[in-house]
Amino acid sequence: MTLSVTDLSIARGGVPVLQGLGFDLAPGQALVVRGPNGIGKTTLLRTIAGLQPPISGRIEGAEDCIAYAGHSDGIKPTLTVTENLTFWASVFGASGICPALDAFELNDLSDRHAGNLSAGQKRRLGLSRLLVTGRPIWVLDEPTVSLDVLAVALFADAVRAHLGRGGSALVATHIDLGLDADVLELGPYRAVPRAVDDFDGDFL
Amino acid sequence: MIALLLRDLKLAFRAGGGFGLGLAFFLIVTVLVPFSVGPQSSLLATIAPGVLWLGALLACLLSLDRLLALDWEDGSLDLLATAPLPLEAVVTIKALAHWITTGLPLVLAAPVLGVLLNMPVPGFFWLVASLLVGTPALSVIGTFGAALTVGLKRGGLLLSLLVLPLYVPTLIFGAEVARRGAVGMDIATPLLMLAGITAATVALLPFASAAVLRVNLR
Fold first, then answer.
1. Please, which residues bridge with residue A140 across strands?
2. What is the torsion angle, in degrees rounded to the nearest 10, for the CA atoms of residue A162, residue A165, residue A171 and residue A176?
3. Is residue A203 predicted with pLDDT exceeding 80?
4. What residues form the membrane-spanning segments (chain B) (predicted)?
5. Nearest CA distance, A90 vs chain B (angstrom)
6. Chain B residues with CB inside 8 Å of A76's CB?
7. How far apart are CA A80 and CA B11, in angstroms?
8. Tens-place pLDDT, residues A48-71
9. Per the CB < 8 Å rule, is B218 touching A68?
10. In chain B, which residues have their Cβ closer than 8 Å to the Cβ of A11?
């Protein structure tokens, strides 16, 4: 399933942040979204995930194909690691959670309450959720925050395996994951501030 | 959907989940009433249906601000919104879980507390019946209020202000069923009105809740 974005304009809090953005994401391809803070990376990813509507433009091939992972992991501290994952697996209709536990080396932690995990372990649990969604397009917002070098390597392996299965990934990150990925630099698409064209001088 | 219901129930029963909070509040309010209005048993018998209904309503209100706010804070709500479940189903299940953990215990505890207020024996059945029919509406309306205020810092008070006026019809007809039942009058009209309110809110409000939730998640 190819994700195709054409002439997309998006706004954050009513202020346009990006305009005229277009790209294609084919199966097996990874695209790294880069840009300075505040350029609209998170807004772009949330728009593609369907959490907010764009001002204009088209997003095709996203319907029911997106697995989104944002800044928060959506983990319940009073549930165990297994319970957290099993919940998401049954929401997405996945069969088992073992591959996800294996991929992020969570087997030793599986009976622990998620509230007792470290920040990096929580992140690993949050990312392992992607594997139980069974969805082809991963949309990831700063996935490596609070991960150590080893865990970043685990994550990169998981993404590579996902791409190998014909999936695709759209990742906003500042670090080099060692992926064979194209880079989407958001700088050129920064929205120009709207000129006030209906300003009435008589108002003053 | 079952998974979401089971998760919400599990969360409610685990540490810090808030199960029993509404029930304890209901108990305290009911115990305090005789202290404040005095020990005349005939007066208590008169006001018992109304006090029990008001106590149940306020107890329901108590746990509403956690209904969606916790899921919003930890990001689960974003993930649920992108999951295959429609948001309408999510809010319906959330309301059902709220009713099972808050409304249902209140219904079951009400007759016991009725004894404390010297409620006439014929009224017990109709008190339980009216709460059983009316409390689902309280949970569904409360979910709508929680969806409206999700994302607001300390939105609990605003939530109460928004939801309490919407609770008025349920309170009027619910307490009326219990009062008429206690004095042996015909309860058909208020009970049908109460059932109608519950049926209408359960049928319509999840759509409104899901719509405002979509706006609030932007």
1. A69, A171
2. 70
3. no
4. 12-37, 43-64, 96-117, 123-150, 157-175, 187-213
5. 6
6. 7, 11, 74, 76
7. 11
8. 888 888 888 888 877 788 888 888
9. no
10. none
pTM (two decimals): 0.88
**Residue A67, token pair as written in the block:** 């697995």
pLDDT tens per residue across span A90-110: 888 877 888 878 888 888 888
Report how far residue A6's alpha carbon sits from residue A16's, in angstroms, rounded to the nearest whole number.
Answer: 16
For the segment A104-128, the average pLDDT, to the nearest whole number, is 86
Q: Do A91 and B15 touch (CB under 8 A)?
A: no
Cβ atoms A190, A17 nearer than 8 A: yes
Residues of B in contact with A53 (CB under 8 A): 218
The H or E element that residue A24 is part of is strand A15-25
| Residue A194: pLDDT band with limits 50, 70, 90 | low
pLDDT band at B196 (very low <50, low <70, confident <90, very high): very high
Q: Provide the residue ranges of all domains of chain A, joining segments of one domain with +.
A: 3-203
Distance CA A121, CA A105 (A): 10
Question: Chain A within 8 Å of B11 (Cβ-Cβ)?
Answer: yes
Can you give the pLDDT at residue A196?
63
Q: What is the DSSP letter of A120?
A: H
Backbone angles phi, psi at A60, to 5 degrees: -115, 145
B155-164 burial, b for 16+ CB within 10 Å, e for fewer?
A: bbeebbebbe
Residue A173: both structure tokens together: 């990150």
CATH number, domain A3-203: 3.40.50.300
Count CA atoms within 13 Å of residue A108 on its CB side. Answer: 4
- Chain B residues in contact with A68 by the CB 8 A cut-off are 78-79, 82
pLDDT tens sequence across B32-77: 999 999 888 889 888 999 999 999 999 999 888 888 888 888 888 8
Report the 3 state secondary structure along chain B: CHHHHHHHHHHHHCCCCCCCHHHHHHHHHHHHHHHHHCCCHHHHHHHHHHHHHHHHHHHHHHCHHHCCHHHHHCCHHHHHHCCCCCHHHHHHHHHHHHHHHHHHHHHHHHHHHHHHCCCCCCHHHHHHHHHHHHHHHHHHHHHHHHHHHCCCCCCHHHHHHHHHHHHHHHHHHHHHHHHHHHHCCCCHHHHHHHHHHHHHHHHHHHHHHHHHHHHHHC
